[in-house]
Amino acid sequence: MSCLMYACLDDLHELVTIDQQVIGSPTRQDLIEKAIVEERCIICKTQSGIGGFLIFTTDFFECSFIALVIVKPTERRKGIATSLLGHFVELASTTKIFSSTNQSNTDMQKVFETAGFIKSGFIENLDDGDPEIIYYKLK
After folding, report:
1. CATH number listed for the domain at residues 3-138
2. Where are the domains of the chain?
């Protein structure tokens, strides 16, 4: 059983730890803290703690944009990312919701497709040789 909710500052250390496990560095602590303070960070709590989190904005061409979806490595393949996406779609303040992932990230592409997102385009030159695929969903 899991519970989806907005993160609070008490969750910051655990979120930074999860993020560090995934990307190998704590460099996004300020970004995560700002998202928590601005109520733009949703967490998925499981019996073993926070299983994953999602950070969003609403300033992407006046649409919602899911900027980050991170799942704790030991909690992957349990539906956490799909649950976070679905929960965000329900509460999004805009009818158009966008997100993106690298072309090399086939696991996240499958998550987006499972959650009903469709490919909407590409952005070149963010990461050398690994285009960003833009995904879209209408609420």
Report:
1. 3.40.630.30
2. 3-138
Q: Which residues contact 26 (CB under 8 A, 6 or more apart)?
A: 16, 19, 20
CA–CA separation, 8 and 14 (whole Å): 11
Helix axes 12-23, 29-37, angle to 10 degrees: 140
Query: 26-31 long-range CB contacts below 8 Å, 24 or more apart?
Result: 28/68, 31/55, 31/68
Q: What is the dihedral of CA 120, 64, 17, 112, to 10 degrees?
A: -30
* pTM of the predicted model over 0.90: yes
pLDDT tens digit sequence for 5-62? 999 999 999 999 999 999 999 899 999 999 999 999 999 999 889 999 999 999 999 9
Strands of 41-46's sheet, edge to edge?
3-6, 41-46, 49-60, 63-71, 96-102, 132-138, 118-123
Q: What is the rounded distance in angstroms from the CA atom of residue 113 to the CA atom of residue 13?
A: 31
Question: How far apart, in whole angstroms, are the C-alpha atoms of residue 1 and residue 39?
Answer: 23
Q: Token digits for 92?
A: 């999004």
Residue-wise pLDDT tens digits, 86-119? 999 999 999 999 999 999 999 999 999 999 999 9
